[in-house]
Write a structure and sequence with these properties.
There is one protein chain. By secondary structure, this protein is α/β, with parallel strands linked by helices. The chain is about 40% helix and about 15% strand.
Length: about 200
């Protein structure tokens, strides 16, 4: 029996029956298609069965953060917004760093950061090794950021999204797995960019 949230590989030319597909979907099992992803590379893919989410915002995202936290809890997710009161007066770099570190350490399966535009929080979060933060202003971009870029932190712009739009974007992001073996393999190239530069300060190629 496959464990919930695991990733399995389908051999090239393999086929999944409709019944098997229903079972995989119910158990949130991600299937890697088209080629092979090494175990090391596969471990870089974002968590498929998200259960624990850490969320934070600067003062401009307080209302949206509260609505998202309540929404996610109503879906049975464990939500860490324990720094909510503190972050109400913090600027986005500190908030984004806290969220990003929780994801990078494995304390949370996924993170959400909110400021007015989302861009600043994404930039700050991406300074933390192991974090891939993406700004998503639509469901399509949210799905793409997970499926093709392996984003493990979602950045939202409170000034550009209604609460209803943000809920839809977040749902699309959380429920989209990363399946493509080539895309998963590219995460290793991204990881390598985080390594200290060698050769007298030049990035190793």
């Amino acid at each position: 029996m496959l464990e919930r949230g695991t990733t399995v590989e389908l051999a090239r030319g393999g086929h999944i029956t409709p019944l098997a597909n229903d079972t995989l979907r119910e158990r949130r099992v991600s299937v890697v298609h088209e080629g092979r992803a090494s175990d090391a590379d596969a471990s870089l893919a974002p968590v498929t069965d998200v259960r624990r989410v850490v969320i934070g915002s600067d003062p401009g995202g307080v209302e949206l953060r509260g609505a998202l936290a309540a929404f996610l809890r109503s879906r049975g997710l464990a939500v860490d917004d324990s720094a909510a009161g503190q972050s109400d007066s913090l600027e986005y770099p500190a908030v984004a760093a806290r969220v990003a570190r929780a994801v990078a350490s494995g304390e949370a399966d996924a993170g959400i950061v909110i400021d007015a535009g989302g861009v600043g929080s994404a930039i700050a979060a991406n300074k933390i090794s192991g974090v891939r933060a993406a700004v998503a202003g639509s469901e399509r971009i949210a799905r793409y950021s997970r499926e093709h870029a392996g984003a493990n932190v979602l950045a939202l712009g409170a000034a550009f999204l209604t609460i209803e739009e943000a809920l839809a974007v977040t749902t699309a992001w959380l429920t989209t797995p990363m399946r493509d073996a080539r895309a998963i393999g590219l995460l290793a190239r991204i990881r390598d960019l985080e390594k200290p530069m060698a050769n007298g300060g030049r990035q190793a190629s």
